[in-house]
Amino acid sequence: MILMWMLLLGAPAAAALPRVEPDAVGLDAIKLATMDAIVAEGIAAKKMPGCVVCIGRHGKIAWLKAYGNKALEPGVVAMTTDTVFDMASITKPVATASSILLLIERGQLSLADKVSTLIPEFAVHDKQEITIRDLLIHQSGLIPDNDMADYQHGPAAAMQRIYGLKLQNPVGTKFVYSDVNFILLADLIQRISGLSVHEFTQKEIFRPLGMTDTGYLPREELKLRAAPTQRRNDRWLQGEVHDPRAFKLGGVAGHAGLFSTADDLAIYAVMLLGRGTYGETHIFRPQTVSLMSDDYRVTSGIRGLGWDKQTGYSSNKGDFLSPSAFGHGGFTGTVLWIDPELDLFFLFLSNRVHPDGKGAVNPLAGKLATIMGSAIIDAPR
Fold first, then answer.
1. Superfamily of domain 4-89+212-374
2. Do residues 341 and 58 make contact, with C-beta atoms less than 8 angstroms apart?
3. What pLDDT does 16 receive?
């Protein structure tokens, strides 16, 4: 039998996971194939121009398939499995929270540290009690996003405006998903390590894992493979960050700006499923992965540190993942869920904002994740 992956579009990266038939990792191929019709319906309804779906289990990729197109404007270009995507808010857990957890593991930070002791300029307007933990679980009391006018005079001035923000809610009393929280976390990474979140993640996470297609500010070869999003200043964004605040911060920010591929994110997912280890490469101690993926009760559900677990943002999770699962979505149409109990990961990557910003994929991704969960035909290992 010819392996399914040999029939699919795109070439794997050098460090890509091995690819197998679904039944080799306890998944029903016939059930997984029903995803094709769901995706086709979504493309026909203009939910997205195309997508890449990747499912892996027990350290192997069992499904990797490109659907539809990655570009409709200015010309039609077919989607491929090696397409580079603007990950949008998946930047938060994969880049920023991962970096913060490494600094905590090394004793350079703690969850209980107060932001104001690390950023003295932040200690105004009753913000002195906000901790690193509050930022990571979105219970800081800060607003979701500050005004774009705060970003018009460069990154340094933008950060000063953020330091001066007032609380929207008392600290620790309400879950409010906030980009500002993660912009501040990236600032802390720079202050503690001396490296930007871009430099830190390349040095400590992505290069060691062989994730050569992942990072901020993609090089020219990756830009050519990138899925375009929308127009800015009369030109199409391709390999340039879609988020306007991240753009104003120079393309490197804690809340958005990361680019990646299905193959690379599969490696990252398997590293976390391996309790911080991928092959011979050790990124985190097992205790750090547990700390990151534990249940943290918030006012509207359960979060991890930088991750979603079960909140109003979990419609892209599907119905059959275990309580141990953690994941995140991105505004541009990206979804990642990782399930330690099932030793399983799910990736749905799209540029749903292309070409006109009107696409919508979270319910569709949730349907695909449900099919994946229903396709499990063996007991968890």
1. DD-peptidase/beta-lactamase superfamily (3.40.710.10)
2. no
3. 82
